[in-house]
Amino acid sequence: xxxxxxxxxxxxxxxxxxxxxxxxxxxxxxxxxxxxxxxxxxxxxxxxxxxxxxxxxxxxxxxxxxxxxxxxxxxxxxxxxxxxxxxxxxxxxxxxxxxxxxxxxxxxxxxxxxxxxxxxxxxxxxxxxxxxxxxxxxxxxxxxxxxxxxxxxxxxxxxxxxxxxxxxxxxxxxxxxxxxxxxxxxxxxxxxxxxxxxxxxxxxxxxxxxxxxxxxxxxxxxxxxxxxxxxxxxxxxxxxxxxxxxxxxxxxxxxxxxxxxxxxxxxxxxxxxxxxxxx
Amino acid sequence: xxxxxxxxxxxxxxxxxxxxxxxxxxxxxxxxxxxxxxxxxxxxxxxxxxxxxxxxxxxxxxxxxxxxxxxxxxxxxxxxxxxxxxxxxxxxxxxxxxxxxxxxxxxxxxxxxxxxxxxxxxxxxxxxxxxxxxxxxxxxxxxxxxxxxxxxxxxxxxxxxxxxxxxxxxxxxxxxxxxxxxxxxxxxxxxxxxxxxxxxxxxxxxxxxxxxxxxxxxxxxxxxxxxxxxxxxxxxxxxxxxxxxxxxxxxxxxxxxxxxxxxxxxxxxxxxxxxxxxx
Lengths: 279, 279
What we know:
The structure is a homodimer of 279-residue chains.
Chain A: E1 11-14, H1 23-33, E2 37-41, H2 42-48, H3 50-60, E3 63-71, H4 77-97, E4 101-105, H5 116-136, E5 140-143, H6 160-167, E6 175-180, H7 181-184, H8 190-197, E7 201-206, E8 208-209, E9 221-222, H9 232-240, E10 247-249, H10 254-258, H11 261-276
Parallel strand pairs in A: 1-2, 1-10, 2-3, 3-4, 4-5, 5-6, 6-7, 7-10
Antiparallel strand pairs in A: 8-9
Helix pairs in contact in A: 1-3, 1-11, 4-5
Protein backbone atom coordinates (compact mmCIF):
# COMPACT_ATOMS: atom_id res chain seq x y z
CA UNK A 1 0.00 0.00 0.00
CA UNK A 2 1.03 3.62 -0.44
CA UNK A 3 2.56 5.69 2.33
CA UNK A 4 0.50 5.82 5.47
CA UNK A 5 0.05 9.01 7.50
CA UNK A 6 2.41 8.21 10.40
CA UNK A 7 -0.30 9.18 12.88
CA UNK A 8 -2.38 6.30 11.48
CA UNK A 9 0.46 3.78 11.77
CA UNK A 10 -1.35 1.80 14.49
CA UNK A 11 -4.95 2.18 13.35
CA UNK A 12 -6.85 -0.97 12.41
CA UNK A 13 -10.27 -1.47 10.86
CA UNK A 14 -12.20 -4.25 12.52
CA UNK A 15 -14.07 -5.79 9.65
CA UNK A 16 -17.44 -5.74 11.41
CA UNK A 17 -17.38 -1.93 11.31
CA UNK A 18 -17.93 -2.23 7.56
CA UNK A 19 -20.20 -5.20 7.79
CA UNK A 20 -21.33 -5.25 4.16
CA UNK A 21 -17.78 -5.50 2.81
CA UNK A 22 -16.17 -8.80 1.91
CA UNK A 23 -12.55 -9.41 2.91
CA UNK A 24 -11.39 -8.16 -0.48
CA UNK A 25 -13.52 -5.04 -0.27
CA UNK A 26 -12.39 -4.30 3.26
CA UNK A 27 -8.73 -4.79 2.31
CA UNK A 28 -9.14 -2.51 -0.70
CA UNK A 29 -10.98 0.03 1.48
CA UNK A 30 -8.13 0.07 4.00
CA UNK A 31 -5.61 0.63 1.22
CA UNK A 32 -7.64 3.52 -0.21
CA UNK A 33 -7.95 5.06 3.23
CA UNK A 34 -4.34 4.54 4.25
CA UNK A 35 -5.28 2.27 7.17
CA UNK A 36 -2.44 -0.23 7.68
CA UNK A 37 -4.16 -3.02 9.64
CA UNK A 38 -7.36 -5.02 9.67
CA UNK A 39 -9.16 -7.19 12.22
CA UNK A 40 -10.80 -10.06 10.35
CA UNK A 41 -13.85 -12.15 11.17
CA UNK A 42 -14.06 -15.88 10.62
CA UNK A 43 -17.29 -15.88 8.63
CA UNK A 44 -16.21 -13.56 5.78
CA UNK A 45 -12.79 -15.24 5.78
CA UNK A 46 -14.52 -18.60 5.34
CA UNK A 47 -16.25 -17.33 2.21
CA UNK A 48 -12.91 -17.26 0.36
CA UNK A 49 -10.77 -19.51 2.55
CA UNK A 50 -7.89 -18.70 4.87
CA UNK A 51 -5.15 -18.93 2.26
CA UNK A 52 -6.88 -16.57 -0.16
CA UNK A 53 -7.66 -14.10 2.63
CA UNK A 54 -4.07 -14.22 3.87
CA UNK A 55 -2.81 -13.55 0.36
CA UNK A 56 -5.16 -10.62 -0.17
CA UNK A 57 -3.98 -8.99 3.04
CA UNK A 58 -0.30 -9.67 2.39
CA UNK A 59 -0.43 -8.47 -1.21
CA UNK A 60 -2.01 -5.24 0.01
CA UNK A 61 0.75 -4.78 2.57
CA UNK A 62 -1.67 -4.83 5.52
CA UNK A 63 -1.30 -6.42 8.95
CA UNK A 64 -3.95 -8.64 10.50
CA UNK A 65 -4.41 -7.20 13.99
CA UNK A 66 -6.77 -9.93 15.19
CA UNK A 67 -9.17 -12.67 14.21
CA UNK A 68 -12.68 -12.55 15.68
CA UNK A 69 -13.58 -14.84 17.22
CA UNK A 70 -13.28 -17.96 19.23
CA UNK A 71 -15.06 -18.75 22.44
CA UNK A 72 -18.58 -19.84 23.41
CA UNK A 73 -17.12 -22.30 25.84
CA UNK A 74 -19.84 -22.51 28.50
CA UNK A 75 -21.72 -25.55 27.26
CA UNK A 76 -20.90 -28.96 28.59
CA UNK A 77 -21.20 -32.45 27.12
CA UNK A 78 -21.27 -32.84 23.35
CA UNK A 79 -21.82 -29.14 22.71
CA UNK A 80 -18.79 -28.39 24.85
CA UNK A 81 -16.63 -30.82 22.91
CA UNK A 82 -17.85 -29.36 19.61
CA UNK A 83 -16.94 -25.89 20.87
CA UNK A 84 -13.41 -27.02 21.70
CA UNK A 85 -13.03 -28.46 18.23
CA UNK A 86 -14.31 -25.28 16.64
CA UNK A 87 -11.89 -23.24 18.73
CA UNK A 88 -8.96 -25.36 17.58
CA UNK A 89 -10.01 -24.56 14.01
CA UNK A 90 -10.17 -20.86 14.92
CA UNK A 91 -6.60 -21.06 16.25
CA UNK A 92 -5.48 -22.68 13.02
CA UNK A 93 -7.21 -19.97 11.02
CA UNK A 94 -5.54 -17.22 13.06
CA UNK A 95 -2.16 -18.85 12.45
CA UNK A 96 -2.94 -19.17 8.76
CA UNK A 97 -3.84 -15.49 8.57
CA UNK A 98 -0.60 -14.49 10.25
CA UNK A 99 -2.08 -12.97 13.37
CA UNK A 100 -1.12 -13.93 16.88
CA UNK A 101 -4.40 -12.66 18.36
CA UNK A 102 -7.59 -14.71 18.50
CA UNK A 103 -10.33 -12.74 20.23
CA UNK A 104 -12.38 -14.92 22.59
CA UNK A 105 -16.01 -14.16 23.50
CA UNK A 106 -16.47 -16.83 26.11
CA UNK A 107 -20.24 -17.39 25.94
CA UNK A 108 -23.20 -16.80 28.23
CA UNK A 109 -25.27 -19.08 30.42
CA UNK A 110 -26.30 -22.27 28.64
CA UNK A 111 -30.03 -22.23 27.74
CA UNK A 112 -32.14 -22.59 30.87
CA UNK A 113 -29.17 -22.56 33.22
CA UNK A 114 -28.79 -20.13 36.12
CA UNK A 115 -25.45 -21.58 37.21
CA UNK A 116 -23.15 -18.63 36.57
CA UNK A 117 -20.33 -20.00 38.70
CA UNK A 118 -20.48 -23.30 36.82
CA UNK A 119 -20.42 -21.56 33.44
CA UNK A 120 -17.35 -19.58 34.48
CA UNK A 121 -15.66 -22.77 35.61
CA UNK A 122 -16.31 -24.42 32.25
CA UNK A 123 -14.60 -21.51 30.51
CA UNK A 124 -11.54 -22.03 32.71
CA UNK A 125 -11.55 -25.76 31.98
CA UNK A 126 -11.83 -25.19 28.24
CA UNK A 127 -9.00 -22.68 28.25
CA UNK A 128 -6.76 -25.21 29.95
CA UNK A 129 -7.29 -27.45 26.92
CA UNK A 130 -6.99 -24.72 24.30
CA UNK A 131 -4.17 -22.56 25.60
CA UNK A 132 -1.27 -24.98 24.90
CA UNK A 133 -2.72 -25.76 21.47
CA UNK A 134 -2.79 -22.03 20.69
CA UNK A 135 0.66 -21.40 22.10
CA UNK A 136 2.20 -24.15 19.98
CA UNK A 137 0.83 -22.39 16.88
CA UNK A 138 2.02 -18.92 17.85
CA UNK A 139 -1.49 -17.73 18.62
CA UNK A 140 -2.61 -16.06 21.85
CA UNK A 141 -6.16 -16.46 23.12
CA UNK A 142 -7.32 -12.91 23.84
CA UNK A 143 -10.02 -13.07 26.51
CA UNK A 144 -12.53 -10.31 25.99
CA UNK A 145 -14.51 -9.19 29.03
CA UNK A 146 -17.88 -8.09 27.71
CA UNK A 147 -20.11 -5.44 29.22
CA UNK A 148 -22.13 -6.97 32.10
CA UNK A 149 -25.35 -6.47 30.16
CA UNK A 150 -24.23 -9.40 28.01
CA UNK A 151 -23.42 -11.70 30.94
CA UNK A 152 -26.49 -13.89 30.50
CA UNK A 153 -26.36 -14.38 26.76
CA UNK A 154 -22.87 -13.58 25.39
CA UNK A 155 -20.05 -13.68 27.88
CA UNK A 156 -19.85 -14.64 31.54
CA UNK A 157 -16.53 -12.79 31.57
CA UNK A 158 -17.57 -9.32 32.69
CA UNK A 159 -14.58 -7.33 33.94
CA UNK A 160 -10.95 -6.89 33.03
CA UNK A 161 -9.97 -8.01 36.52
CA UNK A 162 -11.88 -11.25 36.09
CA UNK A 163 -10.29 -11.80 32.66
CA UNK A 164 -6.84 -11.29 34.15
CA UNK A 165 -7.53 -13.66 37.04
CA UNK A 166 -8.22 -16.27 34.39
CA UNK A 167 -5.46 -15.33 31.95
CA UNK A 168 -2.77 -15.35 34.64
CA UNK A 169 -3.21 -19.08 35.13
CA UNK A 170 -1.52 -19.52 31.76
CA UNK A 171 1.76 -18.44 30.18
CA UNK A 172 1.59 -14.89 28.86
CA UNK A 173 2.22 -16.02 25.28
CA UNK A 174 -0.78 -18.34 25.42
CA UNK A 175 -3.54 -16.23 26.99
CA UNK A 176 -4.02 -12.47 26.96
CA UNK A 177 -6.89 -10.01 27.30
CA UNK A 178 -8.74 -7.52 25.13
CA UNK A 179 -9.16 -3.96 26.35
CA UNK A 180 -12.31 -2.70 24.64
CA UNK A 181 -13.49 0.73 25.78
CA UNK A 182 -17.17 -0.05 25.19
CA UNK A 183 -17.17 -2.97 27.56
CA UNK A 184 -15.13 -1.60 30.44
CA UNK A 185 -15.36 2.20 30.43
CA UNK A 186 -17.77 2.18 33.42
CA UNK A 187 -15.53 0.05 35.68
CA UNK A 188 -14.27 2.01 38.69
CA UNK A 189 -11.34 -0.42 38.91
CA UNK A 190 -10.39 -0.23 35.24
CA UNK A 191 -7.23 1.90 35.56
CA UNK A 192 -5.68 -0.41 38.10
CA UNK A 193 -6.58 -3.42 35.98
CA UNK A 194 -5.12 -1.99 32.76
CA UNK A 195 -1.88 -1.31 34.62
CA UNK A 196 -1.97 -4.82 36.01
CA UNK A 197 -2.65 -6.25 32.54
CA UNK A 198 0.74 -5.15 31.22
CA UNK A 199 1.95 -7.52 28.53
CA UNK A 200 -1.27 -9.51 28.77
CA UNK A 201 -2.93 -6.86 26.60
CA UNK A 202 -3.37 -8.62 23.28
CA UNK A 203 -5.76 -6.17 21.65
CA UNK A 204 -7.01 -2.62 22.17
CA UNK A 205 -10.41 -1.90 20.67
CA UNK A 206 -12.26 1.39 20.67
CA UNK A 207 -15.82 2.46 20.06
CA UNK A 208 -18.27 4.59 22.00
CA UNK A 209 -21.11 3.73 24.36
CA UNK A 210 -24.43 5.17 23.21
CA UNK A 211 -27.58 6.09 25.10
CA UNK A 212 -30.33 5.39 24.78
CA UNK A 213 -29.24 1.88 23.91
CA UNK A 214 -30.92 0.63 20.73
CA UNK A 215 -33.60 -2.06 20.86
CA UNK A 216 -30.91 -4.63 20.04
CA UNK A 217 -28.33 -3.82 22.71
CA UNK A 218 -25.62 -5.55 20.68
CA UNK A 219 -25.78 -2.56 18.36
CA UNK A 220 -25.17 0.08 21.04
CA UNK A 221 -21.56 0.53 19.91
CA UNK A 222 -21.06 3.96 18.36
CA UNK A 223 -18.43 5.90 16.46
CA UNK A 224 -15.98 7.56 18.82
CA UNK A 225 -17.41 10.93 19.84
CA UNK A 226 -21.05 9.90 19.48
CA UNK A 227 -21.35 8.62 23.06
CA UNK A 228 -20.07 8.96 26.57
CA UNK A 229 -16.50 7.67 26.59
CA UNK A 230 -13.41 9.81 27.11
CA UNK A 231 -10.85 7.94 24.98
CA UNK A 232 -7.39 9.45 25.58
CA UNK A 233 -7.12 8.14 29.17
CA UNK A 234 -7.66 4.61 27.84
CA UNK A 235 -5.08 5.02 25.07
CA UNK A 236 -2.56 6.42 27.50
CA UNK A 237 -3.27 3.68 30.04
CA UNK A 238 -2.65 0.84 27.58
CA UNK A 239 0.47 2.59 26.32
CA UNK A 240 1.76 3.03 29.86
CA UNK A 241 1.04 -0.65 30.47
CA UNK A 242 3.45 -1.39 27.62
CA UNK A 243 1.05 -2.11 24.77
CA UNK A 244 2.53 -1.27 21.39
CA UNK A 245 -0.01 -2.98 19.13
CA UNK A 246 -2.82 -1.65 16.97
CA UNK A 247 -5.94 0.22 17.96
CA UNK A 248 -8.89 -1.53 16.37
CA UNK A 249 -12.11 0.29 15.68
CA UNK A 250 -14.97 -2.17 16.07
CA UNK A 251 -18.48 -0.77 15.74
CA UNK A 252 -21.74 -2.73 15.63
CA UNK A 253 -24.30 -0.11 14.73
CA UNK A 254 -27.19 -0.15 12.28
CA UNK A 255 -26.64 3.44 11.21
CA UNK A 256 -22.92 2.93 10.63
CA UNK A 257 -23.66 -0.22 8.66
CA UNK A 258 -26.14 1.71 6.47
CA UNK A 259 -23.50 4.34 5.63
CA UNK A 260 -21.16 4.13 2.62
CA UNK A 261 -18.17 2.21 4.06
CA UNK A 262 -15.61 4.56 2.53
CA UNK A 263 -17.34 7.38 4.37
CA UNK A 264 -17.26 5.32 7.58
CA UNK A 265 -13.48 4.92 7.18
CA UNK A 266 -13.03 8.65 6.61
CA UNK A 267 -15.02 9.46 9.77
CA UNK A 268 -13.18 6.78 11.70
CA UNK A 269 -9.79 8.21 10.78
CA UNK A 270 -10.89 11.70 11.70
CA UNK A 271 -12.32 10.65 15.07
CA UNK A 272 -9.28 8.51 15.79
CA UNK A 273 -6.96 11.43 15.16
CA UNK A 274 -8.99 13.95 17.14
CA UNK A 275 -10.58 11.90 19.90
CA UNK A 276 -8.33 8.90 20.51
CA UNK A 277 -4.87 10.32 19.82
CA UNK A 278 -5.75 13.66 21.44
CA UNK A 279 -3.78 14.54 24.54
CA UNK B 1 -53.78 -6.27 59.14
CA UNK B 2 -54.78 -9.89 59.60
CA UNK B 3 -52.32 -12.63 60.43
CA UNK B 4 -49.45 -12.92 57.99
CA UNK B 5 -48.09 -16.26 56.78
CA UNK B 6 -44.87 -16.40 58.83
CA UNK B 7 -42.88 -17.24 55.72
CA UNK B 8 -43.92 -13.84 54.33
CA UNK B 9 -42.90 -11.95 57.45
CA UNK B 10 -40.05 -10.15 55.66
CA UNK B 11 -41.59 -9.68 52.23
CA UNK B 12 -42.11 -6.14 50.99
CA UNK B 13 -43.86 -4.78 47.94
CA UNK B 14 -41.94 -2.01 46.30
CA UNK B 15 -44.65 0.29 45.09
CA UNK B 16 -43.28 0.58 41.56
CA UNK B 17 -44.05 -3.11 41.01
CA UNK B 18 -47.73 -2.10 41.00
CA UNK B 19 -47.17 1.16 39.20
CA UNK B 20 -50.82 2.00 38.61
CA UNK B 21 -51.76 1.82 42.28
CA UNK B 22 -51.89 4.88 44.51
CA UNK B 23 -50.42 4.65 48.02
CA UNK B 24 -53.88 3.81 49.38
CA UNK B 25 -54.45 1.12 46.76
CA UNK B 26 -51.01 -0.39 47.32
CA UNK B 27 -51.50 -0.43 51.08
CA UNK B 28 -54.89 -2.07 50.70
CA UNK B 29 -53.41 -4.54 48.22
CA UNK B 30 -50.67 -5.53 50.67
CA UNK B 31 -53.24 -6.05 53.41
CA UNK B 32 -55.38 -8.25 51.15
CA UNK B 33 -52.31 -10.27 50.14
CA UNK B 34 -50.85 -10.57 53.63
CA UNK B 35 -47.69 -8.69 52.70
CA UNK B 36 -46.46 -6.88 55.80
CA UNK B 37 -44.20 -4.18 54.34
CA UNK B 38 -44.11 -1.66 51.51
CA UNK B 39 -41.40 0.36 49.79
CA UNK B 40 -42.86 3.74 48.88
CA UNK B 41 -41.97 6.19 46.12
CA UNK B 42 -41.87 9.92 46.60
CA UNK B 43 -44.12 10.84 43.68
CA UNK B 44 -47.22 8.85 44.74
CA UNK B 45 -46.58 9.88 48.36
CA UNK B 46 -46.57 13.53 47.26
CA UNK B 47 -50.03 13.12 45.77
CA UNK B 48 -51.54 12.76 49.25
CA UNK B 49 -48.78 14.20 51.43
CA UNK B 50 -46.35 12.50 53.80
CA UNK B 51 -48.60 12.66 56.87
CA UNK B 52 -51.57 11.08 55.11
CA UNK B 53 -49.37 8.37 53.60
CA UNK B 54 -47.77 7.62 56.97
CA UNK B 55 -51.22 7.34 58.56
CA UNK B 56 -52.50 4.99 55.82
CA UNK B 57 -49.55 2.68 56.31
CA UNK B 58 -49.71 2.78 60.11
CA UNK B 59 -53.46 2.22 60.23
CA UNK B 60 -53.01 -0.82 58.03
CA UNK B 61 -50.31 -2.21 60.31
CA UNK B 62 -47.65 -2.20 57.59
CA UNK B 63 -43.95 -1.29 57.76
CA UNK B 64 -42.31 1.10 55.32
CA UNK B 65 -39.21 -0.78 54.21
CA UNK B 66 -37.75 2.10 52.19
CA UNK B 67 -38.44 5.33 50.40
CA UNK B 68 -37.37 5.62 46.76
CA UNK B 69 -35.56 7.73 46.05
CA UNK B 70 -32.97 10.39 46.59
CA UNK B 71 -29.85 10.94 44.55
CA UNK B 72 -29.05 12.49 41.17
CA UNK B 73 -26.09 14.21 42.69
CA UNK B 74 -23.71 14.49 39.73
CA UNK B 75 -24.56 17.99 38.54
CA UNK B 76 -22.56 20.94 39.73
CA UNK B 77 -23.40 24.62 40.19
CA UNK B 78 -27.01 25.63 40.64
CA UNK B 79 -28.37 22.23 39.59
CA UNK B 80 -26.12 20.60 42.15
CA UNK B 81 -27.36 22.87 44.91
CA UNK B 82 -30.98 22.23 43.91
CA UNK B 83 -30.28 18.49 44.08
CA UNK B 84 -28.93 18.81 47.60
CA UNK B 85 -32.01 20.72 48.65
CA UNK B 86 -34.27 18.10 47.10
CA UNK B 87 -32.37 15.35 48.86
CA UNK B 88 -32.81 17.06 52.22
CA UNK B 89 -36.56 17.05 51.52
CA UNK B 90 -36.35 13.35 50.65
CA UNK B 91 -34.66 12.68 53.99
CA UNK B 92 -37.43 14.58 55.77
CA UNK B 93 -40.04 12.58 53.89
CA UNK B 94 -38.40 9.29 54.84
CA UNK B 95 -38.35 10.36 58.48
CA UNK B 96 -41.99 11.41 58.23
CA UNK B 97 -42.92 8.05 56.76
CA UNK B 98 -41.16 6.21 59.57
CA UNK B 99 -38.52 4.48 57.48
CA UNK B 100 -34.81 4.68 58.13
CA UNK B 101 -33.92 3.77 54.52
CA UNK B 102 -33.73 6.34 51.72
CA UNK B 103 -32.65 4.62 48.49
CA UNK B 104 -30.14 6.72 46.54
CA UNK B 105 -29.75 6.50 42.75
CA UNK B 106 -26.74 8.75 42.40
CA UNK B 107 -27.18 10.01 38.84
CA UNK B 108 -25.33 9.59 35.54
CA UNK B 109 -22.99 11.82 33.61
CA UNK B 110 -24.26 15.40 33.35
CA UNK B 111 -25.50 16.19 29.81
CA UNK B 112 -22.59 16.43 27.39
CA UNK B 113 -20.00 15.46 29.99
CA UNK B 114 -17.55 12.59 29.62
CA UNK B 115 -15.91 13.17 32.98
CA UNK B 116 -16.84 10.01 34.82
CA UNK B 117 -14.24 10.48 37.53
CA UNK B 118 -15.48 14.01 38.17
CA UNK B 119 -19.10 12.85 38.38
CA UNK B 120 -18.15 10.21 40.92
CA UNK B 121 -16.29 12.82 42.94
CA UNK B 122 -19.35 15.09 43.00
CA UNK B 123 -21.40 12.22 44.42
CA UNK B 124 -18.88 11.82 47.22
CA UNK B 125 -18.90 15.56 47.91
CA UNK B 126 -22.70 15.68 48.01
CA UNK B 127 -22.86 12.72 50.37
CA UNK B 128 -20.52 14.49 52.76
CA UNK B 129 -23.13 17.26 52.99
CA UNK B 130 -26.17 14.98 53.18
CA UNK B 131 -25.01 12.15 55.43
CA UNK B 132 -24.98 14.11 58.73
CA UNK B 133 -28.32 15.68 57.87
CA UNK B 134 -29.79 12.23 57.30
CA UNK B 135 -28.18 10.75 60.40
CA UNK B 136 -29.61 13.48 62.61
CA UNK B 137 -33.08 12.53 61.40
CA UNK B 138 -32.65 8.79 61.88
CA UNK B 139 -32.45 8.13 58.15
CA UNK B 140 -29.73 6.19 56.38
CA UNK B 141 -28.74 7.01 52.80
CA UNK B 142 -28.80 3.66 51.01
CA UNK B 143 -26.42 3.85 48.04
CA UNK B 144 -27.67 1.71 45.21
CA UNK B 145 -25.11 0.51 42.71
CA UNK B 146 -26.92 0.27 39.41
CA UNK B 147 -26.14 -2.13 36.59
CA UNK B 148 -23.24 -0.76 34.51
CA UNK B 149 -25.57 -0.35 31.52
CA UNK B 150 -27.01 2.65 33.38
CA UNK B 151 -23.64 4.23 34.16
CA UNK B 152 -23.97 7.00 31.57
CA UNK B 153 -27.53 8.07 32.27
CA UNK B 154 -28.67 6.87 35.71
CA UNK B 155 -25.95 6.05 38.18
CA UNK B 156 -22.19 6.36 38.04
CA UNK B 157 -22.14 3.95 40.98
CA UNK B 158 -21.78 0.60 39.26
CA UNK B 159 -20.64 -2.09 41.71
CA UNK B 160 -21.26 -3.02 45.30
CA UNK B 161 -17.54 -2.69 46.01
CA UNK B 162 -17.56 0.87 44.70
CA UNK B 163 -20.66 1.69 46.78
CA UNK B 164 -18.95 0.32 49.88
CA UNK B 165 -15.76 2.27 49.22
CA UNK B 166 -17.95 5.36 49.32
CA UNK B 167 -20.24 4.33 52.18
CA UNK B 168 -17.33 3.43 54.45
CA UNK B 169 -16.23 7.04 54.55
CA UNK B 170 -19.28 7.73 56.72
CA UNK B 171 -20.71 6.34 59.97
CA UNK B 172 -22.67 3.14 59.40
CA UNK B 173 -25.89 4.71 60.67
CA UNK B 174 -25.63 7.49 58.06
CA UNK B 175 -24.74 5.67 54.84
CA UNK B 176 -25.50 2.12 53.77
CA UNK B 177 -25.90 0.19 50.51
CA UNK B 178 -28.65 -1.54 48.58
CA UNK B 179 -28.16 -5.11 47.45
CA UNK B 180 -30.36 -5.48 44.36
CA UNK B 181 -29.98 -8.77 42.51
CA UNK B 182 -30.79 -7.26 39.11
CA UNK B 183 -27.94 -4.80 39.29
CA UNK B 184 -25.15 -6.96 40.69
CA UNK B 185 -25.87 -10.60 39.85
CA UNK B 186 -23.19 -10.65 37.12
CA UNK B 187 -20.38 -9.36 39.35
CA UNK B 188 -17.67 -11.99 39.88
CA UNK B 189 -16.71 -10.20 43.11
CA UNK B 190 -20.25 -9.96 44.49
CA UNK B 191 -20.01 -12.64 47.19
CA UNK B 192 -16.95 -11.10 48.75
CA UNK B 193 -18.57 -7.67 48.64
CA UNK B 194 -21.83 -8.79 50.25
CA UNK B 195 -19.83 -10.33 53.06
CA UNK B 196 -17.84 -7.13 53.37
CA UNK B 197 -21.04 -5.07 53.39
CA UNK B 198 -22.21 -6.54 56.70
CA UNK B 199 -24.29 -4.02 58.61
CA UNK B 200 -24.01 -1.54 55.75
CA UNK B 201 -26.77 -3.46 53.97
CA UNK B 202 -29.75 -1.13 54.25
CA UNK B 203 -32.02 -2.82 51.72
CA UNK B 204 -32.28 -6.12 49.85
CA UNK B 205 -34.21 -5.95 46.61
CA UNK B 206 -35.00 -8.80 44.27
CA UNK B 207 -36.13 -9.10 40.68
CA UNK B 208 -34.86 -11.03 37.70
CA UNK B 209 -32.66 -10.07 34.75
CA UNK B 210 -34.39 -10.68 31.43
CA UNK B 211 -33.02 -11.31 27.97
CA UNK B 212 -33.48 -10.05 25.42
CA UNK B 213 -33.58 -6.71 27.16
CA UNK B 214 -36.63 -4.69 26.13
CA UNK B 215 -36.27 -1.60 23.93
CA UNK B 216 -36.33 0.53 27.07
CA UNK B 217 -33.63 -1.16 29.13
CA UNK B 218 -35.04 0.37 32.32
CA UNK B 219 -37.86 -2.14 31.97
CA UNK B 220 -35.65 -5.23 31.80
CA UNK B 221 -36.50 -6.15 35.39
CA UNK B 222 -38.58 -9.31 35.54
CA UNK B 223 -40.56 -11.36 38.04
CA UNK B 224 -38.30 -13.81 39.86
CA UNK B 225 -38.07 -16.98 37.81
CA UNK B 226 -38.58 -15.26 34.45
CA UNK B 227 -34.89 -14.55 33.90
CA UNK B 228 -31.36 -15.68 34.65
CA UNK B 229 -30.76 -15.08 38.34
CA UNK B 230 -30.34 -17.80 40.95
CA UNK B 231 -31.84 -16.12 44.04
CA UNK B 232 -31.17 -18.31 47.10
CA UNK B 233 -27.41 -17.67 47.12
CA UNK B 234 -28.10 -13.94 47.33
CA UNK B 235 -30.64 -14.34 50.13
CA UNK B 236 -28.26 -16.56 52.06
CA UNK B 237 -25.35 -14.19 51.49
CA UNK B 238 -27.18 -11.13 52.86
CA UNK B 239 -28.43 -13.21 55.80
CA UNK B 240 -24.91 -14.42 56.52
CA UNK B 241 -23.73 -10.82 56.35
CA UNK B 242 -26.15 -10.11 59.19
CA UNK B 243 -29.03 -8.49 57.33
CA UNK B 244 -32.36 -9.02 59.07
CA UNK B 245 -34.51 -6.54 57.15
CA UNK B 246 -37.14 -6.97 54.47
CA UNK B 247 -36.83 -8.37 50.99
CA UNK B 248 -38.35 -5.88 48.60
CA UNK B 249 -39.66 -6.94 45.22
CA UNK B 250 -39.11 -4.09 42.79
CA UNK B 251 -40.03 -4.76 39.17
CA UNK B 252 -40.11 -2.26 36.32
CA UNK B 253 -41.72 -4.19 33.50
CA UNK B 254 -44.39 -3.19 31.00
CA UNK B 255 -46.04 -6.62 31.09
CA UNK B 256 -46.16 -6.70 34.90
CA UNK B 257 -47.58 -3.18 34.92
CA UNK B 258 -50.31 -4.24 32.48
CA UNK B 259 -51.37 -7.15 34.73
CA UNK B 260 -54.05 -6.86 37.44
CA UNK B 261 -51.98 -5.78 40.48
CA UNK B 262 -53.67 -8.29 42.82
CA UNK B 263 -52.55 -11.00 40.42
CA UNK B 264 -49.03 -9.55 40.43
CA UNK B 265 -48.97 -9.78 44.23
CA UNK B 266 -50.16 -13.39 44.13
CA UNK B 267 -47.41 -14.32 41.67
CA UNK B 268 -44.86 -12.37 43.65
CA UNK B 269 -45.68 -14.25 46.85
CA UNK B 270 -45.54 -17.57 45.08
CA UNK B 271 -42.19 -16.84 43.43
CA UNK B 272 -40.79 -15.44 46.65
CA UNK B 273 -41.70 -18.60 48.54
CA UNK B 274 -40.44 -21.00 45.89
CA UNK B 275 -37.51 -19.16 44.31
CA UNK B 276 -36.14 -16.77 46.92
CA UNK B 277 -36.74 -18.65 50.17
CA UNK B 278 -35.83 -21.99 48.55
CA UNK B 279 -32.76 -23.71 49.93
